[in-house]
Amino acid sequence: GTLRRDHRTVSTHMSAVRATTGFATSARVNSATRRAPSSHRALSSRASRAASGTISSRPIARVAPCVHRGRPLAMKVSAALPPAAAGPAVGCLFETLPFGAFIGAVLGGAITSLASRLWSKRHLSNATVTHADTPAHRALMDACPHFSEPYDAVDVLRNRHACTIVASLLRENLPIEYQREVLRMPDGGHVTLDWPIAVPQYPGEDDVKNTMASLGAVVVNDDARQRAEERTAKRERERMDDIIAQLQYGASAKTKNGRFESVGGAGDSASSPDGVPGVIGVAGGGGAGGCGSGGTGCDVDFDALTPPFRRAIPDQGRTVTRKRLAEHWRTIPDDAPVLILMSGIAGGSHDKYLKHFMRRAARCGYRCVAFNCRGTANSPLTTPQFYSASFTGDVRAVVDEIHGRWPEAKLFAVGWSLGANILTNFLGEEGESAKLHGAVAMCNPFDLNACDEALQNGFFGTVYSRAMAKNMRALFAPHEHLFQGLPNYDNALVANAKTVRDFDEAVTRVTFGFDSVDAYYDASSSKLAIENVSIPLLVVQAKDDPIAVSDAVPREVIEKKTTPGCVVLVETESGGHLGWTAGSEAPFGSPWPDVGAMQFFEACRRGVGATFGNQSDGQSAGRVEEADADAEVERRAEVEADVAVEAPAR
User: Fold this and answer.
1) Active-site residue identified among 545, 574, 590, 620
2) 115, 141, 194, 371: least buried by Cβ within 10 Å?
3) Is 551 designated active site?
């Protein structure tokens, strides 16, 4: 009779898990749990559940006094593999192999069956959430219910190295189409912005148009693009005038005798290094032939220049890049929130985890753009200056540029790994002057010396460091001639760089003027900047991260930081480095924190957790929500209902 009651209790608990996580669970626990009577008693008693227990042989994450947590769980569950995970389970395994499609077709059924068995066994634990105890912080986390739900890691990938490597190699590579924009920086260097012009739908979204519209998102499809191309040339030029004025002269541009002129102010020609207002894009350049103030480079008579071109061609910035971008930009409202995505070391817009988050944000109506540092993602390197963990000038220039284009839109940013470190340093330097309304940092290394020490120890540390150094050398190799002749630069050191530390010694330290690599790491560690962050910032870390090690996380600083910005730390029991193979899309879909991060952005978008007068008292959230409650209640209900569930193809 006791055993039957225990099984009924387990069945009831499984039903709760099924309703919470979205997958079909069976009323079974693993053999280790079945043999432990204390686990059954813990499940059958609410008081015992509150006291916590053990999951297999490992304890549930202990919670500090100022920490929120979800429901304590003491079991493994078996779950049916959701469609969102079953599909990529086959495709990702074979997409990079010769004859991959044929192998997948022959072995697809067997692989899917095996994957269903492997991925369905989950290990449940609670995420640890740390922040200052203020009403504003609590209101912000109440708006992110995902972090109160169980972290249901795929059991066979709980090892930190397995999670890191498998997710990196086999995560689904979404076929997002980009239009690239090259921006010239004030020092003459260039970065690139990749704007998504075609984002794939989620599996199972049959009625894509209605689904996207209900979320305020935009789908750029072939029909829309074809209709745009059918417009007459005259109307096309007229529609381009506004965007050209905005790009070259700022949002307050005015016309005189049919020509645009810039107005005085921070973006005026006089304050720009080369006489061109604002940050210069691909069609920029000073002088009479440029597109800046007084230039005629963009004043092209399209009717007079017809192909084939021999002596002259139309300005490519206007006729190619910006023309296509303008068509895409105009499909999204001018006041739509803008999200800047910053990848990890040697990464860029091609990174799989970035693409997954971009798709999620685009579905929620965000204008997304991937920021590629100098020389990364096949970006041009035109000066002897690479990027570094402490250099924030390029991020600042990009944020200023985007803010100038859409001054009424709220700006947000998300960074991973080294990109998270750069983003946090930038926010700390900007302080209360930051133009961003919220940010998310995932797998932030925080203390680069501590992380470097971890990379120097053990077999896997060496593997990671050598792999990253190899990627850095590959990015640097096509541009090494630019660095020849620089003081203290030795090309032989670059060629022989086997680890990240070796590369930083050969290139980064030299070009950014640091006396040593240790001095560079000390000055670049974002743990020094976290206290000065003045906007809502979500930090997500994995306690078993082999690269951004747990010891580097400044928990005490985050816990005591009450003003001026709300900083929240979420830590998962497992997840490796950028792995997080949990949730309904695991292991080959989007990482587990993405849902909560999207909820965080939506909360910041509504003003939850914002501060006025450096007082994080929660009153600001109330004032903002009361002011626009009538206008926003329906949209908020739709968006929150969607992002709160991990599987779009539920």
Assistant:
1) 545
2) 115
3) no
Helix (H, G, I), strand (E, B) or coil at 196: strand
Per-residue confidence band for 81, with pLDDT thresholds at 50, 70 and 90: very low
The DSSP secondary structure of 208-253, one letter per residue, reads HHHHHHHTT-----HHHHHHHHTS-HHHHHHHHHHHHHHHHH-TT-
Look at 114-118, 212-216, 373-377 and tell me which has the smallest mean pLDDT. Answer: 212-216
Whether a cis peptide bond, with omega within 30° of 0, leads into 186 is no
At what angle are helices 83-94 and 100-120 packed, to 10 degrees?
140
State both tokens at 5: 């009651």
Return the closest-CA partner of residue 79 out of 139, 19, 34, 127. 19
On the question of a cis peptide bond just before residue 307, with omega within 30 degrees of 0, the verdict is no
Residue 345 CB-density burial (10 A; 0-12 exposed, 13-18 middle, 19+ buried)? buried
- What count of other Cβ atoms lies within 10 Å of the Cβ of residue 75? 26
252 assigned to active site: no
Exposure pattern of 216-247 as b/e (b: 16+ CB <10 Å)? Answer: bbbbbeeeebeebeeeeeeebeeebeebbbbb
Q: Average pLDDT, whole number, for the chain?
A: 73
Is 13 one of the catalytic residues?
Answer: no
**Residue in 13, 40, 146, 577 annotated catalytic:** 577
Q: Would the CA dihedral through 222, 210, 213, 588 be positive or negative?
A: negative
pTM here?
Answer: 0.70
DSSP category for residue 259: E
Which of 6-15, 72-81, 109-118, 216-225 has the largest mean confidence? 109-118
Nearest CA to 386 out of 471, 446, 279 is that of 471
Strand order in the sheet with 121-125: 76-78, 121-125, 151-154
CA atoms within 13 A on the CB side of 486: 20
Kind and range of the H or E run holding 423: helix 418-430
In the chain, % helix, strand, coil (3-state, to 5) comes to: 45, 15, 40
Q: Which of 39, 272, 293, 417 is catalytic?
A: 417
